[in-house]
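We append the chain.
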Amino acid sequence: MANTLKLSYKEKDAHLKTAEILKNGGIAVVPTETVYGFAVDAFNVSAQKRVYKLKGRNQKKPLIVMAADIESVKTLVEIPQKALKIAKKFWPGQLTLIFQTTELGKIISGGRNDLGVRIPNSDFMLKLLKEIRTPLFTTSVNSSGKKSAKTYKDALAFDGVADVVIDGGKCKFSFESTVVDMVKFPYLIIRKGCLDTDEILKML
């Protein structure tokens, strides 16, 4: 059982304390504008394994990368020109885009050829990502097959197993991000989430 630190996102140093825990290989439960997520340093393999174990998640199912900006994303995935236009329009936001991995992306993802990435539209998450200066691997806060945590109360189900839980109240959208596979053309919407797919289809 971890001694879980609980912080409000309103505390001015909450992102600093969370970043420190993540840098030391910890697991954070963080609020985003979609749902609560588990977050770990993308370059810490043992922390990734802990998240899979925590959720009971199949290791073949990838985690999602969250980054502070497009330049950080480009170190891990190859973004085609058309996709870059879509990313610039909808990021930060509720859109996860799947791209082909770079060599570095393959290394941190255990050899995967593709990765889903997102820049969240959450003040707390953007502050955290800028502070830690490294992408994070994230996945929704739930046990595999169960509903994602949308409130702080839901997230507290993992009190005692995560290293820090951030109270962000109720998530603004309380629904998962929309996911588009952009590895090869034609691009596919593989999960309809809280971002209006009609807007994306116009650009595809």
Summary: The chain has one domain: 5-203. DSSP finds eight helices and eleven strands in the chain. The radius of gyration is 16 Å.
